[in-house]
Structure formats: structure tokens, C-alpha cells
Design goal:
The protein has two domains: 132 residues, no CATH class; 107 residues, no CATH class. Strands 1, 2, 3, 4, 5, 6, 7, 8, 9, 10, 11, 12 and 13 form a 13-stranded antiparallel beta sheet that branches. It contains seven helices and 13 strands. The protein is α+β, with helices and mostly antiparallel strands and 244 residues long. The two termini are 20 Å apart.
Length: 244
């Protein structure tokens, strides 16, 4: 299941099924330095000023975010090495709260860090992600759709799998805007019920109880109702969505 809900006031997305690797697989400017919120580990550099782990350098950041610990970590980016040393005690306390409570006291964008993102996974499998420029989320969502689609096709019988010369089109912004008004209430993409043929891939769009997701109920047991479909025409390489 992929899930996304947008909170316009906090420019935050609550998501499921979207991983850091999806950010790395876009043309967006990827983080070059990240501040990792507790728990602290000796496996990473510890910043003496904050007591938090830091990862510096684009290659090191990519390697960390592609790992299992990186996928499960809460973190913020920062623009330049050394910026973390300028954080005030109150700001460090806010970050401790963000890491512990999985929600913000104030929006986690700091002048001293010049950060663009904050990502806070929750125990339920949902993720709170904050975007200084929320329009950049579209490219990350498209990359997540591409990753899930490839996994789905590669699980099919050989005549329905991703063909050697088949190029999967990116999910365009115009299609994503067709469900923009539904994101404040949350929208699910149910890959478990996707229908695959040689001509099309059809992914059900569902309304789902986020409250049930927060209490850690298995996704398969959470009630949902179909509200539409996301359709890929494999012959023409085009996406479109339909709502009931």
C-alpha cells in the first residue's frame, strides 16, 4: 500500500510506501549533509555540539539513506558542514521532541541549517515528511510509483513482466494534480489489488482510515473503499486517473 496525505498548514506529507531511495532517484537536489535524530549510534559520526549523529558528503548520505538503518531513521538535511554547531539549545530541544514524539513543536525548518527537508518515520509504518518546497514532492512520488510498478511487473508471469525494451513513463504532474483535492483527507494506492495485462496496469485508489494505521493495525486488515483508479496504458506509455 502507498498512502499520502497532505497537511497544507505545515507543508507536511503523511506517507506510507515512499522511501528515501525515491528521493535519491529524482532530479531534485539531494541532501549533501544530514543530521540524524536519536537514538545515537557509534556507527556514525557524533556531532559534539548537539550529541546527534551526522552524515557528511553526498556519497556517504546516499549510502546511509539506501541502508536499512537509513530508511528507518529520522533526519533533517543541512546545507553546509559546520552549520549544526550553530543550533541553539531551544532548537536542539525541539529536535529531540521531534525525534521522540514523531511530531513537531514548530515546523522543523531552521535558518541556521538552511534545511529543505525533514523525515520522521513512525512505529506504525507511516512517515511524517516536511518540505520547504512541497511541489518537489511530486517528483519523489513519481519515483515511488515507478519503483512499485517495476516490483509489481517483475512478479508477474513472464508474458506480463517488464519487457526488455519497455520504457516505463514517469507519472506526470498533470495526473497527480487530478487527486490534489483529495490529499488533505488521504489517498491510498492499493498495489495488492492491481490488475496487470499486456495492455494496461490498473491500480485502485482507495480511501483508508489513517487512524487505524496509526495504531499499527496490519494494512491488510484496515477497511478501505475504492474511489477511483490510476491506469497505465502500456502500449502508449501514458498515465491517467479516473474517479467514481
Amino acid at each position: 500500500m502507498m498512502y499520502v496525505r497532505f497537511e497544507p498548514i505545515s507543508t507536511a506529507f503523511v506517507t506510507m510506501g515512499i522511501d528515501p531511495v525515491d528521493m535519491l532517484n529524482t532530479a531534485n537536489a539531494n541532501p549533501q549533509h544530514i543530521l540524524v535524530l536519536p537514538p545515537v549510534t557509534d556507527d556514525l559520526t557524533i556531532n559534539a555540539h548537539t550529541g546527534f549523529n551526522v552524515v557528511d558528503g553526498g556519497v556517504a548520505v546516499r549510502q546511509f539513506l539506501e541502508s536499512v538503518p537509513g530508511r528507518n531513521a529520522a533526519w533533517l538535511d543541512y546545507r553546509d558542514e559546520g552549520f549544526v554547531d550553530d543550533l541553539l539549545p531551544q532548537e536542539i530541544a525541539e529536535l529531540l521532541y521531534l525525534g521522540h514524539r514523531k511530531t513537531h513543536m514548530s515546523l522543523p525548518f531552521y535558518y541556521k541549517l538552511q534545511n529543505q527537508y525533514a523525515r520522521v518515520p513512525m512505529n506504525s509504518g507511516l512517515v511524517n515528511s516536511y518540505w520547504r518546497h512541497p511541489e518537489m514532492f511530486e517528483a519523489v512520488f513519481s519515483a515511488a510509483i515507478d519503483r512499485h510498478l517495476r516490483e509489481l511487473l517483475n512478479q508477474q508471469a513472464f508474458w506480463l513482466r517488464l519487457r526488455r525494451h519497455e520504457k516505463l513513463p514517469q507519472l506526470p504532474s498533470s495526473v497527480q494534480k487530478t487527486w490534489q483535492d483529495k490529499l488533505p483527507d488521504g489517498l491510498g494506492f492499493d498495489w495488492s489489488k492491481a490488475k496487470v495485462s499486456a495492455q494496461t496496469v490498473i491500480i485502485p485508489l482507495v480511501q483508508i482510515s489513517e487512524r487505524r494505521l496509526y495504531v499499527g493495525v496490519d494494512i491488510a486488515d484496515v477497511p478501505s473503499s475504492q474511489v477511483g483508479q490510476l491506469v497505465l496504458n502500456r502500449a502508449t506509455g501514458t498515465w491517467h486517473s479516473m474517479f467514481s
